[in-house]
Design a protein that fits this description.
Layout: H1 29-40, H2 44-57, H3 62-74, H4 78-91, H5 96-108, H6 112-125, H7 130-142, H8 146-154, H9 158-161, H10 164-176, H11 180-192, H12 198-210, H13 214-227, H14 232-244, H15 248-261, H16 266-278, H17 282-295, H18 300-312, H19 316-329, H20 334-346, H21 350-358
Helix pairs in contact: 1-2, 2-3, 3-4, 3-5, 4-5, 5-6, 6-7, 7-8, 7-10, 8-10, 10-11, 10-12, 12-13, 13-14, 14-15, 15-16, 16-17, 17-18, 18-19, 19-20, 20-21
Length: 359
């Protein structure tokens, strides 16, 4: 049961701004402009081809090497991009723009520690660099280091301090730094000033989720839904917040509305089934679990839940079949194999069941 962050609505997006270095070698400015123009227009193959041709004649142009890294990152060719960045760093190890792009390159891959090192080098060269401090604060929050995050946020330029992304990050950092009263007050101030912007309420809801205050999260997601009633991710998160808060009737109602938009969403179906099971109605959980499995056959947790629920209502042969499929995905789960043995015995397949149990 994972809450979803809708990138269009959350508002808590920390943009990674790649810097396009000016030409620093013999490559003509006109070629550089042609490449950057193609890059900005999304013509990545064309940009790469033109730039590679130029680099064959001038292989040590730092700006061109850095730009090649950016173009390859945009194509998610991270291994190729890494080579270009390292070549450029050999020539210009203290280039702020290059270190910024390198940090972004690692962040795009989820390599937070390597990104941190790149941004720290950049911050040492330029203590007020906006993206470096913002990303270092973000990494610190993710690592539950609230005080460190607050220090990085304090280095941001004044014009950045009041941006929504920074304020929300400060809320989370304050809470992690055991300054909960300040964090809660700042979050309330944000809600008061939100007007009717669903992005704000959505982000507030996610923050309450992080604090495990699911009732408050349910309220925030409800306010977001009031302003964006057809947004699926708001509906899903509202249902999950209500479920965690114990408001299962509300959760079921919300999931049903969400499923009208996406009838085969495996998470909605799985969560509905969990509510039926938890409230003593496992027979009602079977159908949504089967639908969830059909929608996401590669997810072992759905198969295991289907097996457990089938077992609970006495469908032992069906439970054994579900465990068979589960074990193809999780072949080393000894407990599942034991449970299959019990199910086989109960479905009159004594020899097969005993084989599992003896194993």
């Amino acid at each position: 049961m994972v809450f979803r962050r809708n990138i269009l609505i959350a508002g808590l997006i920390l943009l990674l701004a790649s810097s396009l270095l000016p030409a620093q070698g013999p490559i003509p400015q006109s070629v550089y402009q042609e490449v950057t123009s193609a890059y900005r227009e999304g013509k990545l193959t064309e940009a790469e081809k033109t730039l590679r041709s130029a680099l064959e004649k001038s292989p040590q142009d730092v700006g061109a090497l850095a730009l090649m890294g950016v173009i390859l990152d945009a194509q998610k060719r991270y291994g190729d991009a890494e080579k270009e960045y390292q070549r450029a760093l050999t020539l210009a190890p203290r280039s702020p723009s290059l270190l910024n792009n390198l940090g972004n390159h690692y962040m795009a891959q989820g390599k937070r520690e390597q990104a941190r090192q790149a941004y720290l080098k950049l911050a040492a060269l330029d203590p007020k660099h906006a993206n470096a401090n913002l990303q270092l604060a973000r990494i610190s929050v993710d690592d539950k280091q609230g005080e460190a995050a607050l220090k990085f946020l304090a280095h941001l330029p004044p014009e950045e301090q009041s941006s929504f992304a920074v304020v929300m990050l400060r809320v989370r950092a304050l809470y992690l730094a055991d300054r909960q009263t300040q964090a809660e007050q700042l979050l309330k101030d944000i809600e008061k000033q939100a007007g009717k912007d669903p992005r704000v309420f959505f982000s507030v809801g996610l923050t309450y989720v992080e604090w495990k205050r699911y009732g408050d999260a349910e309220e925030a997601f409800t306010r977001a839904l009031d302003e964006a009633p057809t947004n699926f991710d708001i509906l899903y998160n509202l249902g999950l917040a209500a479920q965690h808060a114990g408001d299962v009737a509300r959760a079921l109602d919300v999931y049903r509305v969400a499923l009208k938009q996406r009838p085969n969403d495996p998470d909605c179906l799985f969560n509905m089934a969990a509510i039926f099971t938890q409230t003593g109605h496992p027979d009602e959980a079977i159908v949504p679990l089967m639908q969830a499995h059909n929608a996401a056959p590669e997810r072992p947790e759905i198969l295991f839940a289907l097996a457990q629920t089938s077992q609970d209502i006495g469908y032992y042969a069906d439970a054994a079949t579900a465990i068979d499929q589960y074990l193809k995905l999780k072949p080393h789960d000894d407990i599942a194999r034991r449970e299959r043995g019990f199910c086989l015995i109960r479905s009159a397949k004594l020899d097969q069941g005993l084989e599992d149990l003896r194993w």
